[in-house]
Amino acid sequence: MKTRIQTHIPDVAAPAPPRLAIDDNGRLYAYRDEKPIHVAVRPCFPWSAARRFLSLRDMDFNEVALIEDPDELNDEARHALDAALAEARFTFSIRAIRAIERDFELRIWRVDTEEGLRSFAMQWDDFPEKMSDGSLVLKDLGGDLYRIPEPDSLDRNSARLLWAFRG
Amino acid sequence: MRAASRYAAGILLSRLPAPAASAQRRIDTATPMNAPKLQQNRGIIRRFFEQPECLPDSLRTRLEARWAGEPPQLYALADLDGGLRQTEMWVVLGPREIALANRESSGAEGGSEYAMRYIPREAVRKVREEPGLSSTTVSLLAEPDQPALAVIRFSFRQRGAMGAILFVLQQQAEGRDIHPTDADGFYAEAVAEPVKTRQGSVTRDKLSVVWRLVGYLAPYRASFLLGLFAAAAFTAITLAPPMLTRNLIDDIITPYTRGDLALEEAYRAGWMILAILVVIYLSREIFLWLRLRSLTVVGEKVARDLRRTLYDHLHTLSVGFFSRNQTGSLISRVSSDTDRIWDFIAFGVAELVLSALMLCGLAVVLLVLDWRLGLVLILPVPLIFIFIIYMGRKLHRIFMRVWHRWSEMTAVLSDTIPGIRVVQAFNQGDHERARFSRRNEAVLDEAVLISKVWTSHWPVIFFALNVITLLVWAFALPRLLGTADTAPTLTTGTFFAFLLYMGMFVGPLEQFGFLTRMINRSISSAHRVFEILDTEPEIVNAPDAKRLEPVEGRISFKDVTFGYDPVRQILKGISFDVEPGEMIGLVGPSGAGKTTVVNLIARFFDANSGTITVDGHDIASLDLGHYRAQIGMVMQDPYLFHGSILENIRYGKHDADLGDAVAAARAANAHDFILKLSSGYDTVVGERGHTLSGGERQRISIARAILHNPRVLILDEATSSVDTETERKIQEAIDRLVAGRTVFAIAHRLSTLSRASRLFVMKDGLIVEKGKHEELLKVPDGVYTRLHNMQRELHEMYAV
Q1: What is the Cα–Cα distance from B564 to B573, expressed in whole angstroms?
Q2: Does B539 fall in a domain?
Q3: A vs B: CB pairs below 8 A
Q4: In what helix (H) or strand (E) does residue A36 lie, and over which residues does it extend?
């Protein structure tokens, strides 16, 4: 594990990384003194540095460990962490836009996602947010997030429909 | 668990903005949702989400057979599988077990096959939620850190419906049984709710909204009809001058030049036409004035009525409503939305009538004048109209981009101008200037694009009109001049009138494009206004509400539970009795439920279950206004209104005499600092009293409470965030204020509660310890003892 370069910032020590494993249900466990603790992954930077600084939290939201870089973990732990991280960072991924319809005060987006066909509603004056990696993220009324990873690679019709909403 | 629907747990759930309290239902309600509402919700699910609108019949039948005919209590869709792909797994809460039905394939005859799992309800002792960015994973557990009985994954859309199930399971694990009875209604409402919330509780039918708005015109119908009549008359009169011009040319000038009319006769007739034109132009302007005057005044009166009704109604709504809705949004409904409605009534209605009449009138006049030329002129009009609509849509798409860029640019302003001290303190002026400049440039890019499209729009329209003009000329010329064999069949005057009428076509066509946007915006505004008006107060007076004369201040809680959302219970069954004149200190860590207790005492919310009594009467049976008048509150961040200090002190008792106001200020240790201000008690404090320090504002709020003379007093962190000397003065003032009243005081600094009769120590929604300061300190490892020791150590560590 990397040693933090000495800076002027007071060092509040984070707990050291424990052994990690994942069960058949996809639940992540951290082992402290060989005792399994069910933990959840909370990425510190889910958009800007998704695989760095991962906080593992127990049922009472106490921090069990802070993993700065999963690549420094052993294979088993890294695999377990990546699986849990995929779940924590899950968003629908839009492949194509079929239609954008107007309704009173709302717009209905009908899209093909990696996860299957999906329709969702946004407020008529809500726009996709442009992320630092160039992707666009749309948030629907229920709070679900839809990501367009490469807006420039969309098919012609999708690009035409999206044009008015691109910032 | 933070399920995002106020619907599921019943009672008052406040995380999502709620359109109407009438939509709030208890989870154990015995009354199923009425059929039209259920159908409406299912319609929304079909239109917006394309997910099943209810539990499939085959599955329901199968489960009811297993449960001896008992229907599902609740159900929800888990729409993600273990690999986070979309799936259809139903989670169904039965009377004794939970069924997990995973749709595997379509069976014979189009039916569906489900892989079933059943979990006994009593086996679930814990529910763990792990929210991600756009999905939630829930583990049903027998014991923490043991393998899960089941793991369910779902998108946020399903949180409301799923939250209700998890709430029931959690309650059961804590020994409280809930028996929901309207599974279909809950599922449909929970999924459809976000759409209904955004679209409002009122009808989506635009015509209905317009008709409702028209209802507000009823008291002013005479003026309104007069305005419409004036608009119609104005239009009719506007059509007359070209016709008279035709008469002038055909009946006077042409006959005179041919020698068919004597000079005197020509002059007489010419002057007559001019006189008629003078009358026409004068009366046209009179009708214009009449129209503007009548309709703008009617519009103002309707806007005034709406603002008054809306503001009156806002005052009847409960605290929960205001916590669910953003202040800015509410203010804009009272101000800019009513202003848009005025705009519509004052100008939109008249312009609409005028434009429609003008187009119809023009068509009739032209056909009457010369039907063949009339057709040449009228037939292309729909094409121009379609072109204008097409251009409107195209411009709308570009405008959307401009709005987006514009809002990004203004976001920098609203960020940095209020925070200018931080910007300057961190020397970030250059950074912020560059950020603004980038966004300003982006606005320019889009604005240039709009200009390009917009500027190409007009030449196209005018070119089309010119083409029509050429066509008219082309058709008219042979008829004007005639041929070698035929005499002219079209008079110069008629042709000239045609040319004049042609110019009149452009205005109404343009107006329609503009009016479409205006009407849509006004209907949206009316909709937002009606949405508030249709929101019913959550806290209302009972039919025979009692007035306690006087309130003695004996307050009891019995098994009171309360939560703001479906699953997270803030108060978990607390009970206490407080005698009149007692001072109760509420202590405990943040989130323990202290503020919720005082909110319930003030009846800002109603308890989910259990009873609260005041002097032996159920709090819900008391006259709300009268009861609240007996309650005083001194908050951590006291709110002062824009006005003089005197007005602020007398806020709860406007007719208090000056001597009482001064006495109250003296008692509150405010008198001295008030007199240091040059205008004394008449000093106007700015919005929220920002011209005063925190301690000064606090002492004015205490003076206000002293003058108000409440029987029950609530002190919520009244002495936090002030320096020691100010705290001493405030504490002194509070000591004078609390005498003889029932007091509930919340404080983190335990030293400020030294005079409390009893302390209630709260933790996780429960009262874990009760007693006097000395008694509680005798409990080793008690929560209060730990808090006390911690504060003592801190004090010793940082004491100077």
Answers
A1: 15
A2: no
A3: 130
A4: strand A35-43
For residue B54, what are the domain limits? 21-199
Count each helix (H run) and each strand (E run) in chain B, helices first: 27, 19
pLDDT of the residue at B769:
92
What does the alpha-carbon distance between residue B72 and residue B85 come to, in Å, rounded to a whole number?
26
B163 and B251 both lie in a single domain: no
If asked whether residues B298 and B400 sit together in one domain, one would say: no
| Residue A31 within a domain | yes
Name the minimum distance, in Å, from the CA of B765 to any CA of chain A. Answer: 16
Residue carrying the six token digits 């409990």: B779
- Calpha distance B654→B648 (Å, rounded): 9
Token pair in block for residue B762: 């709260």
Give the containing element (helix H, strand E) for B99: strand B97-106
Q: CB B50 to CB A127 under 8 A?
A: no
Average pLDDT over residues B592-598: 91
Which of A27, A89, A125 lies nearest to residue B151, judging by beta carbons? A27
pLDDT tens track for B183-204: 999 999 999 988 887 775 555 5
Domains: count for chain A? 2
Q: Which residues in chain B are closer than 8 Å to A130, comparing Cβ atoms?
A: none
Give the tokens for residue A151: 């807006």
A76/A112 same-domain check: no
d(CA A129, CA A134): 10
| A35 domain residue, yes or no | yes
What is the b/e burial string over B308-331, where b = at least 16 CB atoms within 10 angstroms of the residue's CB? eebeebbeebbbbbeebbeeeebe
Average pLDDT (B17-32) is: 42
Who's near B456: CB < 8 A, 6+ residues apart? none
CA distance A150 to chain B (A): 19
A13 belongs to a structural domain:
no
Chain centroid, CA A159 distance in Å: 24
The residues, any chain, with a CB within 8 Å of residue B283's CB and separated by 6 or more, are: B233, B237
- In chain B, residues 502-541 whose CB comes closer than 8 Å to chain A: 524, 527
A40 and chain B in contact, CB less than 8 A: yes
Do residues B372 and B475 lie in contact, with contact meaning Cβ atoms separated by under 8 Å?
yes
**Amino acid letter, residue B148:** A
Q: What 8-state DSSP symbol labels residue B756?
A: -
Number of domains in chain B: 4
Q: Is the dihedral of CA B106, B109, B110, B111 positive or negative?
A: negative
* Contact check, Cβ <8 Å, B132/A108: no
Which domain covers residue A127, as residue numbers?
92-163
- Report the 10 Å Cβ neighbour count for B579: 14
> How do residues B34-91 score in pLDDT, each as one tens digit?
788 899 899 999 999 989 999 999 999 999 999 999 999 999 999 999 888 999 999 9
Which residues of B, range 190-229, sit inside 8 Å of A by Cβ?
194-195, 197-200, 204, 206
Task: Give every CB contact of residue B346 below 8 A, 6+ residues apart in sequence.
Answer: B292, B295, B296, B298, B299, B300
Which 72-101 residues of chain A touch chain B by CB within 8 A? 86-92
Residues B743, B662, B745, CA angle at the centre, nearest 5°? Answer: 15
**Residue A5 forms part of a structural domain:** no
Phi–psi pair at B323, nearest 5 degrees: -75, -20
- Whether residues B401 and A140 touch (CB distance < 8 A) is answered with no
ipTM of the complex, rounded to two decimals: 0.90
CB-based contact B198 A141, cutoff 8 Å = yes
Question: Are the CB atoms for B769 and B776 separated by under 8 Å?
Answer: yes
